[in-house]
Automatic annotation (TrEMBL):
<keyword id="KW-1134">Transmembrane beta strand</keyword>
<comment type="similarity">
    <text>Belongs to the TonB-dependent receptor family.</text>
</comment>
<dbReference type="Pfam" id="PF00593">
    <property type="entry name" value="TonB_dep_Rec_b-barrel"/>
</dbReference>
<keyword id="KW-0798">TonB box</keyword>
<dbReference type="GO" id="GO:0009279">
    <property type="term" value="C:cell outer membrane"/>
</dbReference>
<feature type="domain" description="TonB-dependent receptor-like beta-barrel">
    <location>
        <begin position="393"/>
        <end position="970"/>
    </location>
</feature>
<feature type="domain" description="TonB-dependent receptor plug">
    <location>
        <begin position="124"/>
        <end position="238"/>
    </location>
</feature>
<dbReference type="Pfam" id="PF13715">
    <property type="entry name" value="CarbopepD_reg_2"/>
</dbReference>
<keyword id="KW-0813">Transport</keyword>
<dbReference type="InterPro" id="IPR023996">
    <property type="entry name" value="TonB-dep_OMP_SusC/RagA"/>
</dbReference>
<dbReference type="InterPro" id="IPR039426">
    <property type="entry name" value="TonB-dep_rcpt-like"/>
</dbReference>
<dbReference type="Pfam" id="PF07715">
    <property type="entry name" value="Plug"/>
</dbReference>
<dbReference type="InterPro" id="IPR000531">
    <property type="entry name" value="Beta-barrel_TonB"/>
</dbReference>
<dbReference type="InterPro" id="IPR036942">
    <property type="entry name" value="Beta-barrel_TonB_sf"/>
</dbReference>
<protein>
    <submittedName>
        <fullName>TonB-dependent receptor</fullName>
    </submittedName>
</protein>
<dbReference type="InterPro" id="IPR012910">
    <property type="entry name" value="Plug_dom"/>
</dbReference>
<dbReference type="InterPro" id="IPR023997">
    <property type="entry name" value="TonB-dep_OMP_SusC/RagA_CS"/>
</dbReference>
Length: 1007
């Protein structure tokens, strides 16, 4: 391995050396690029005509081209939104020619190049709903997972992180999703490789193995006319991620370093030690008062820490000769969690090679990305324990029992149901994993010599990942308490091991034809292709179990190996697809798309399905009656309709009978040996695709030469063959319920996007972007035939009581409605303990009085991004907000009762939320858990990011450009919600891992 690293470093050194020699034998061109108001333009593409030598301007609009042969050359500058500029320059060997290029602004939005499925288009030819976010507009923050870069940036797209854990993923929802029982995650495609929706053991989030610093753009395909080219996986939308590529020219080195300091911004409001003593002394019995101690412990302070994050990235890009651009990057992230012992270390690397051969007829694009994540996962049970643990107890005991941590005991034995020492839960558990992932592909684009407009494209890609880990709890730890056998032996400790491998391979071949026929004022763009993708998952369940089971001794010696050590799953997707775009007179565009998919997830009679779509766009600005209207720079109408499918999140072989391997705690003894058993599972042979039909109507507009642009869209999505649980007769099909295609659901909404540049002059610019989304959701069918007695599918289990759930999916109601009792209040607005409205008036309050109240989904959400630049200073702000979403506060319902403090089944006391002072609830029975009192308005406005930076320009006469910057992430949240955080994906707030507030300092160097 070390030899391989050495070879790679020597190769890179040789490339730099060769480039340096070539530079010494030739001349250079340097200069600046500005607009017609003398404002410098960063990111402008500057190249020498007839060669592949090129570069991009830096933050000060400066550029330099090295290795130019002596003589006269034509240099051309290109930039989105500006007309191309060309100048002739004479170069002398060993000298540098200096020029200044001035570019004229033009309407830019319609000329933008947009990444679509299997190709690109100019924005003016796009007829579907596609949103693009490039690296200039990403969140300026330390992020460990790439989807967080676009949070709050796109109308119709909600990105909510799953909590504050390092590497935690996010819930991505495009236009509300399209399913109940399957997944609502969009399909993610990286550089042409569609990813599996499955996670990998040992990683909190598989996307965390992709370095955000390597990403150039996100393209989000939101409606069916844009996404149908991906057929059976596009009902929830498609996210196309394009990574950064190299450009020909002299080597350029970029180094970026960030340091972040994170702290918990809010804690659960529980009784302090003194408040707890006062409460117990006032309300407790003498026996309960005797359970108090004399310590002053804030258990939440004990488990949380100030967390440090460092993120360092370096990349080298340039060109070898005229036709071999390259880019190589390496990154290292070390992120501590605010919960003690939590840590993520990621080492990543990427290589992009883009050579061209045969006079540019053959273009090769090789993308390789790899990462290794090493994680230590904190025991998140410590969060709930810190809320409940008696604050009058000390952290440590006066002996070595339980590792020296104070634990609640009775007559020398652990109290079975009492909370464990929160710090002991963290420090006496080692949950470590190593996950490796590599994503890559080889793309060949061949333009036929006899017909250059016809291209043959080959894409061979892969996504390999492996994860392994071990969870170890020593036998003396209180958290490792498992059981007492009949002989009175206590078995403590855990030593679980796991491993998993996933393979995803794709092979695609397609033909593309792009022709502009000026004689008939027509433009044709056609694609037709074939795709084969195979997925393989090899899962080795826990290699060992809790101490005391027959196959493992306390010395970690396996007594009996499993007969079948691995579970192997495999599935295949075969596809045929095509798309035709036709544009007439730059005014009218027709798009037709079709994809046929065959998936091994379904039985043969349901295995194939076809997903068509069509769209029309009218570029009204090109009509004669508007061409001379200077106020309008864009006016375009788009209409689209299509059908997409869903095959993720529904199992691989559910259409046929299969057997499941038991875990090590459920073995069968044969003689002196123990064996894992395979048990039969239920199946549903008629399972088929969920299908979503989408209608989209939009208007794109722009004023004042694109200084003010925007889009307003209306969409309607109808999903049929929705999967839902169906009860099975007892004793049949090895299962009480099966999931069948029996439902339907609709989503409809309006999206508004506005982007503007209110101020733009030589010294000062101000950019402002706003997006707003309104979405409603309704379930229209959940049974095979209408059944007025079917209340719906209940879910959303909560802590406390036995088998309580507070959510329901039911017909003519939104997805994820709360199913609760209507609380009764006194004249002062205080909830009455255990008193609820008899809604049906039968004189009895029971399950028949539960009602559907609010929903976990917001009615609307929005984002605002603004940035200013004054000379060398920059500053920015990102806001996100949500309106009409509700949360069930399970921390209140589970802790804020007298019964919780004065536990009747154990000789110990629990701490409680101070909400108990507002309600005075006794906690008798279980019905209070279902009170709508605990369903709280979680609408919010979050200041997501505040950033400021300064561009020093060239420093130390070295030609290096330096930029320093700082930002604050999760700066503040405005909300009426009384819990820790108003953003909880599940809709149930039960000791959520808090999102920290993070302060970041960073520097960026360009050489």
């Amino acid at each position: 391995m070390r030899n391989n690293y050495l070879k790679n470093y020597l190769l890179l050194f040789a490339l730099l050396l060769v480039s340096g020699v070539a530079f010494a034998q030739t001349g250079s061109i340097s200069g600046t690029v500005t607009d017609n108001k003398s404002i410098t333009l960063p990111g402008v593409s500057v190249s020498i005509d007839g060669t592949n030598i090129g570069t991009a301007t830096d933050v000060n609009g400066a550029f330099r081209l090295n290795g130019i042969t002596s003589g006269t050359h034509t240099i051309t500058a290109k930039y989105i939104g500006y007309g191309n500029v060309s100048r002739q320059v004479t170069v002398t060997a060993g000298q540098t020619a200096n020029i200044a290029l001035v570019m004229e602004s033009q309407a830019q939005a319609l000329n933008e190049v947009v990444v679509i499925g299997y190709g690109t288009q100019q924005r003016k030819d796009v007829s579907g709903s596609i949103a693009t976010v490039n690296s200039r507009d990403f969140q300026k923050a330390v992020v460990s997972s790439p989807e967080q870069l676009i949070a709050g940036k796109v109308a119709g797209v909600s990105v909510i992180s799953n909590g504050g854990q390092p590497g935690a993923g996010s819930q991505i929802r495009i236009r509300g999703g399209a399913s109940l029982s399957a997944t609502n995650n969009p399909l993610i495609v990286i550089d042409g490789v569609p990813l599996s929706d499955n996670g990998i053991s040992g990683a909190a989030n598989p996307l965390s193995l992709i370095n955000p610093n390597d990403i150039e753009t996100f393209s989000i395909l939101k409606d069916a006319s844009a996404a149908a080219i991906y057929g059976s996986r596009a009902s929830n939308g498609v996210v196309l991620i394009t990574t950064k590529k190299g450009q020909s020219g002299a080597p350029k080195i970029n180094f970026n370093s960030q340091v972040g300091v994170s702290k918990v911004s809010k804690k659960v409001d529980v009784f302090s030690a003194s408040e707890f003593r006062d409460f117990v002394n006032e309300h407790g019995t003498p026996e309960q008062i005797a359970l108090l101690s004399d310590s002053e412990t804030d258990w939440q302070d004990v488990i949380y820490q100030t967390a440090i994050t460092t993120d360092n990235n370096i990349n080298v890009s340039g060109g070898i000769g005229k036709n071999f651009p390259y880019r190589v990057s390496v990154g290292y992230l070390n992120q501590d969690g605010v919960l003690k012992t939590d840590n993520l270390k990621r080492t990543s690397a990427s290589v992009n090679l883009s050579p061209k051969f045969f006079d540019n007829h053959l273009k090769v694009n090789l993308n390789l990305k790899g990462a290794i994540n090493k994680s230590r996962f904190a025991n998140q049970g410590a969060i709930g324990a810190a809320v409940s643990m008696n604050p009058t107890f000390p952290i440590y005991s006066d002996n070595d029992e339980f590792g020296g941590y104070y634990e609640i005991t009775k007559q020398g034995n652990l109290e079975t149901l009492a909370p464990r020492n929160p710090l002991g839960l963290l420090e006496l558990r080692n949950d470590n994993s190593t996950v490796k992932r590599s994503i890559g592909n080889l793309q060949l684009d061949y333009s036929f010599h006899f017909l250059p407009d016809l291209h043959a494209n080959l894409n061979l890609g892969y996504d390999y990942s492996s994860g392994e880990g071990k969870i170890f709890v020593p036998d003396y730890a209180a958290q490792g308490y498992n059981r007492i056998t009949v002989d009175g032996v206590v078995h403590n400790g855990t030593n679980n091991q796991y491993s998993q491998k996933q393979q995803n391979r794709v092979g695609e071949f397609y033909l593309s034809y792009n022709k502009d026929v000026k004689s008939i004022e027509s433009r044709f763009d056609a694609v037709a292709g074939y795709s084969y993708q195979i997925f393989r998952n090899e899962d080795a369940p826990n290699g060992s179990q809790n101490y005391g089971f027959p196959d493992l001794t306390a010395d970690n010696v396996v007594v009996q190996s499993r007969l079948f050590p691995n579970n192997v799953f495999q599935n295949v997707l075969i596809s045929y697809y095509g798309r035709l775009n036709y544009t007439f007179k730059n005014r009218y565009t027709l798009t037709a798309t079709v994809r046929t998919d065959g998936s091994s997830r379904f039985a043969e009679e349901n295995r194939w399905a076809t997903f068509p779509s069509g769209a029309f766009a009218w570029n009204a600005k090109e009509e004669s009656f508007l061409q001379d209207v200077d106020a309008f720079s864009i006016l375009k109408l788009r209409v689209g309709y299509g059908i997409t499918g869903q095959q993720e999140g529904i199992g691989l072989y559910d259409y046929r009978s299969f057997y499941n391997l038991s875990n090590n705690a459920a073995q069968y003894q044969m003689g002196d040996a123990y064996y894992n058993m395979y048990r039969p599972g239920g199946y549903y042979q008629n399972r088929k695709w969920e299908q979503t039909a989408t209608t989209n109507v939009a208007v794109d507009w722009g004023f004042f030469n694109d200084r003010l642009t925007g889009t307003i869209e209306y969409y309607y999505k109808k999903t049929k063959d929705l999967l839902n649980e169906v009860a099975q007769p007892a004793g049949t099909n090895f299962r009480n319920q099966i999931v069948a295609n029996i439902g339907s659901m609709e989503n409809k909404g309006v999206e508004l996007t506005v982007n503007s540049q209110p101020v733009k002059n030589k010294d000062f610019t101000w950019d402002l972007g706003v997006n707003f989304t309104y979405n409603t959701n309704k379930i229209t069918q959940l049974t095979i035939a209408p059944d007025p007695n079917y209340v719906g599918a209940r879910f959303g289990n909560i802590s406390g009581g036995t088998g309580n759930s507070v959510l329901i999916n039911s017909v003519n109601n939104p997805r994820g409605a709360f199913y609760v009792y209507q609380q009764v209040y006194n004249s002062e607005g205080k909830p009455l303990d255990g008193v609820f409205v008899d809604r049906n008036g039968d004189g009895i309050v029971n399950d028949n009085d539960l009602y559907r109240y609010k929903s976990i989904d917001p009615k609307a959400f929005f984002g605002l991004s603004t940035s200013v630049a004054y000379k060398k200073w920059t500053a920015g702000l990102v806001l996100r907000g949500s309106i009409g979403n509700y949360l069930y506060n399970n921390v209140f319902s589970n802790t804020a009762t007298l019964r919780n403090i004065f536990n009747p089944v154990g000789g110990y006391l629990n701490n409680a939320s101070t909400n108990l002072l507002e309600t005075g609830f006794s906690g008798a029975g279980d019905t209070y858990f279902s009170s709508d009192y605990y369903v709280q308005n979680a609408s919010f406005l979050r200041i997501d990011n505040i950033n400021v930076g300064y561009n020093f320009g060239k420093i130390f006469n070295s030609g290096a450009n330096l930029r320093l910057y700082g930002n604050v992430q999760n700066a503040y949240v405005f909300t009426k919600y009384k819990g820790l955080d108003p953003e909880v994906n599940s809709g149930i707030d039960n000791n959520f891992y808090p999102r920290p507030r993070t302060f970041v300092l960073g520097l960026n160097l360009d050489f």
